[in-house]
């Protein structure tokens, strides 16, 4: 290490930070979408499945058309179709949300593998990071602040937007009301089912975006079950972040950060079992989020009281 | 008996229902109901549980659709298909189980009930204006879960009034109020009437209706059987219309000489931290109930009753076994099962979830608490015939309306399920009965039957503890009364030595936080409401026994 010049060290740290942000972005995208669905009272455990379908749709479209925007759009639409299926089953046909969500994930794993069979091993040009002349070249801060790809900035903007909509607008108030007490929302005249459909579809679109990030940016290729559990992490993040968008983002970055650090630790040949190191991101994220959300009253205020409950209107 | 139309001839009534029918699978809930509500009247809708009152109001409010029949609003035929449409016409509703969102603020709750936007900041001013104008004190930025039941009702009323409704429907509004809060509500309702609005007032409290309402329509078995001037009727004649026969009378209390006997239920300086973030801690509660005695505990909901119930029933265990004793035996460290085995029975606060498993049949629910009694279980096996027999006995004795003992508990109306739960416990012939709100939401006829059963149980020598918000009920039943407020329990006093006014002051006064009750009084526009004024007995809500 001492052989490295000072400048190399800075570049190394910059690269590490960039890698952490890239690892965190798909988690943040998927978790923010699921947060909106859960705030409206719907527990969609199919995030993993929706992400996979989004990832394969993005990759296939990219190979076929060569257009990145088209690929991202295809991912969002494909995952929204999955979310629509979930909505029809749980909201219209009133199936159990937990069972349906698990089934959606299993379905997504199979469907994406089936679609992706012909795409294994094909190389694509992934989404390149931005390069702002002058700014991106600033040591350390340049690549971190100005050298990310456009989806990273989109994930931050979407988090902010979701936070503003949920807590500052009438639409957000209605979403929270529907998740808090669907019977009361119905009684004062809100279309509970319709609002929940919209929120579930938004969750699907975000999961699709997260999937697209994986297959277009993070590892620009298609591998079966390439999400490797990130959908489940996103679900857990929502709960540990007590349904707050800012905390979801924090949790995602924490997880991404520790993931990258433990990769580097493994690479450096640290004398700790790699299995223990692989556990670190999970342990650190859970620990921190549990610590910042100790106040049970606050949790009860943020947790949607009707989460996972089937709404049946009288006729 | 039908003397409708008090409005001048020619003017169309505000709301007219003609031949409204509504059936649910197996039951005709509304059977060709006609109802006319005029402008500027308080119209009572009176009936027993399951008479079809709530269903009819849900049809008017657009939550349910009628199977047949027509509705006219100010002379024009209308079809109301959603609550939003009802609101546009000018129909507002104050729900019995409030349609409020606990985790949102008062202003947000009100905003949800209004058409269109407007910033929450501007809404705050409008809320203040309306709440000051009508003397309905409210803080727009408080969260609903922090509010008392009376305050929550004010949120609903203010939300309703901001929509400038011409017809306001209130579903059993006084069931959650202290007597004083109820008087203040009546003053608000009279003022709304004087402004030319119509009020539809659903209740089964006959004295209230006689004191407040201009006309009363009585529903029985889904039909409207009469529309009368309630002030020209007696509580008894109204009850007869509701039930179709004379209501049963309570037998005179046997005045058992319980003084000397050893208490069957004792609580000794019980202190308990609430396990619910919104609950009330208990502070050194002591009480004793002797055989042949009913002790009533009065208090506004949310003053520690549910923690006390949880401690008494055995849902929460205490380290100090002697804090609660049954027939002298320390039981505070024993769970509900051993306590029941010692002869204790409990009627919990929540019917669905605590008192009964919603998805199970009535017979199965009966078995869950009564399996120790009457040979329902033999050699570890459930005896189906006995169990169903026991459930049917409960149903016939306590006049429970349901499709047999196979009916799911959740399919029963609230009052009917309450009758079933109380009956199930009483028929186990307990030595000690602890009952929370035994007649909450139960109609007059059935309430009298439940009261009679409690008195009979007492006369057989059981010790009965009744926790209730309903002072009339405690007056009828109790030998002694104590008041719970802010987690403290007062000394108990013989019932005849406490006036209703004393009780009202104790219920509101001991906790200090309820001074808003004073702000809820009649305050003409512009005048600041008086705080904590002695407003006793200016209304005739006499306690008929």
Automatic annotation (TrEMBL), chain A:
PANTHER family: ABC TRANSPORTER PERMEASE PROTEIN, SUGAR ABC TRANSPORTER INTEGRAL MEMBRANE PROTEIN-RELATED. The keyword Transmembrane applies. It is found in: Cell membrane. It comes from Roseospira visakhapatnamensis. The chain crosses the membrane at residues 6-30, 42-64, 70-95, 102-124, 144-167, 188-215, 221-241, 248-265, 271-292. Keywords: Cell membrane, Membrane, Sugar transport, Transmembrane, Transmembrane helix, Transport. This is Simple sugar transport system permease protein. GO terms for molecular function: transmembrane transporter activity. Its main location: membrane. GO terms for cellular component: plasma membrane. InterPro entries: ABC_transp_permease. It is a multi-pass membrane protein.
TrEMBL record, chain B:
Its main location: membrane. Residues 15-246, 265-511 form the ABC transporter domain. Residues 522-545 are annotated as: Disordered. GO terms for molecular function: ATP binding; ATP hydrolysis activity. It is a peripheral membrane protein. Keywords: ATP-binding, Cell membrane, Membrane, Nucleotide-binding, Repeat, Sugar transport, Translocase, Transport. The keyword Membrane applies. Pfam families: ABC_tran (PF00005). Residues 536-545 have a biased composition (Basic and acidic residues). GO terms for cellular component: plasma membrane. It is found in: Cell membrane. PANTHER family: CARBOHYDRATE TRANSPORT ATP-BINDING PROTEIN MG119-RELATED, GUANOSINE IMPORT ATP-BINDING PROTEIN NUPO. This is Simple sugar transport system ATP-binding protein. It comes from Roseospira visakhapatnamensis.
């Amino acid at each position: 290490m001492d052989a490295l010049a000072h400048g190399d060290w800075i570049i190394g740290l910059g690269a590490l930070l960039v890698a952490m942000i890239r690892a965190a972005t798909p988690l943040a995208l998927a978790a923010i979408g699921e947060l909106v669905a859960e705030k409206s009272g719907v527990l969609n455990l199919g995030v993993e499945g929706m992400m996979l379908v989004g990832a394969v749709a993005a990759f296939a479209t990219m190979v076929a058309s060569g257009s990145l925007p088209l690929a991202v759009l295809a991912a969002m639409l494909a995952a929204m179709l999955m979310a629509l299926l979930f909505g029809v089953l749980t909201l219209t046909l009133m199936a159990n949300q937990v069972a349906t969500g698990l089934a959606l994930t299993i379905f997504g794993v199979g469907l994406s593998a089936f679609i992706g069979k012909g795409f294994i091993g094909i190389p694509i040009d992934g989404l390149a990071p931005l390069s702002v002349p002058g700014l991106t070249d600033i040591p350390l801060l340049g690549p971190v602040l100005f050298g990310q790809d456009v989806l990273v900035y989109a994930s931050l903007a979407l988090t902010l937007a979701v936070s503003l909509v949920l807590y500052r607008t009438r639409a957000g108030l209605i979403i929270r009301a529907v998740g808090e007490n669907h019977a009361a929302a119905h009684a004062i005249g809100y279309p509970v089912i319709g609002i929940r459909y919209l929120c579930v579809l938004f969750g699907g679109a975000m999961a699709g975006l997260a999937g697209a990030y994986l297959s277009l940016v993070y590892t620009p290729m298609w591998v079966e079950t390439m999400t490797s559990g990130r959908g489940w992490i996103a679900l857990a993040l929502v709960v540990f972040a007590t349904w707050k968008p800012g905390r979801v983002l924090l949790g995602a970055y924490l997880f991404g950060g520790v993931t990258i650090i433990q990769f580097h630790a493994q690479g450096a040949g640290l004398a700790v079992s790699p299995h223990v190191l692989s556990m670190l991101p999970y342990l650190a994220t859970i620990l921190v989020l549990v610590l910042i959300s100790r106040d049970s009253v606050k949790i009860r205020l943020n947790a949607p009281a009707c989460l996972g409950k089937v709404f049946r209107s009288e006729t | 008996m039908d003397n409708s139309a008090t409005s001048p001839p020619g003017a169309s009534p505000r709301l007219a229902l003609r031949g409204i029918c509504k059936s649910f699978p197996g039951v005709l809930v509304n059977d060709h109901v006609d109802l006319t509500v005029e402008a500027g009247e308080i119209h009572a809708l009176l009936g027993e549980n399951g008479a079809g009152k709530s269903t009819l109001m849900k049809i008017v409010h657009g939550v349910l659709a009628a199977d047949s029949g027509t509705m006219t609003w100010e002379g024009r035929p209308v079809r109301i298909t959603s609550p939003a449409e009802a609101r546009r016409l000018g129909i507002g509703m104050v729900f019995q189980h409030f349609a409020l969102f606990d985790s949102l603020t008062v202003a947000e709750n009100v905003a949800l009930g209004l058409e269109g936007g407007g910033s929450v900041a501007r809404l705050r001013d409008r809320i203040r204006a309306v709440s000051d104008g009508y003397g309905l004190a409210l803080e727009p930025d408080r969260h609903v879960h922090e509010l008392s039941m009376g305050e929550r009702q004010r949120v609903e009323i203010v939300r309703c009034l901001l929509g400038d409704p011409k017809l306001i429907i209130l579903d059993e509004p006084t069931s959650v109020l202290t007597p004083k809060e109820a008087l203040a509500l009546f003053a608000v309702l009279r003022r709304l009437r004087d402004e030319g609005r119509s009020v539809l007032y659903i209740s089964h409290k006959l004295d209230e209706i006689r004191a407040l309402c201009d006309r009363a329509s009585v529903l029985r078995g889904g039909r409207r059987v009469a529309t009368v001037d309630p002030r020209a009727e007696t509580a008894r004649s109204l009850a007869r219309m509701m039930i179709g026969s004379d209501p049963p009378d309570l037998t005179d209390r046997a005045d058992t000489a319980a003084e000397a006997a050893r208490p069957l239920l004792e609580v000794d300086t019980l202190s308990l931290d609430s396990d619910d973030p919104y609950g009330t801690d208990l502070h050194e509660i002591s009480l004793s109930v002797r055989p042949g005695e009913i002790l009533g505990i009065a208090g506004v909901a949310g003053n520690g009753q549910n923690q006390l119930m949880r401690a008494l029933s055995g849902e929460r265990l205490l380290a100090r076994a002697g804090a609660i004793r049954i027939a002298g035996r320390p039981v505070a460290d024993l769970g509900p099962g051993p306590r029941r085995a010692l002869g204790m029975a409990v009627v919990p606060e929540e019917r669905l979830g605590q008192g009964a498993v919603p998805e199970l049949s009535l017979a199965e629910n009966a078995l869950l608490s009564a399996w120790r009694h009457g040979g329902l279980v033999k050699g570890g096996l459930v005896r189906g015939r006995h169990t169903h027999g026991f459930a049917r006995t409960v149903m016939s004795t306590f006049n429970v309306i349901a499709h047999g003992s196979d009916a799911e508990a959740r399919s029963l109306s609230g009052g009917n399920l309450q009758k079933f739960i109380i009956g199930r416990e009483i028929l186990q012939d307990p030595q000690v009965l602890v009952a929370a709100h035994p007649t909450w939401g139960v109609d007059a006829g059935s309430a009298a039957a439940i009261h009679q059963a409690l008195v009979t149980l007492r006369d057989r020598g059981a010790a009965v503890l009744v926790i209730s918000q309903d002072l009339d009920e405690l007056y009828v039943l109790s030998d002694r009364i104590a008041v719970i407020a802010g987690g403290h329990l007062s000394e108990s006093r013989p019932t005849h030595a406490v006036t209703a006014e004393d009780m009202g002051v104790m219920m509101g006064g001991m906790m200090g936080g309820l001074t808003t009750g004073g702000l809820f009084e009649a305050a003409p526009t512009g005048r600041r409401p008086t705080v904590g004024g002695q407003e006793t007995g200016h209304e005739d809500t006499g306690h008929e026994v």
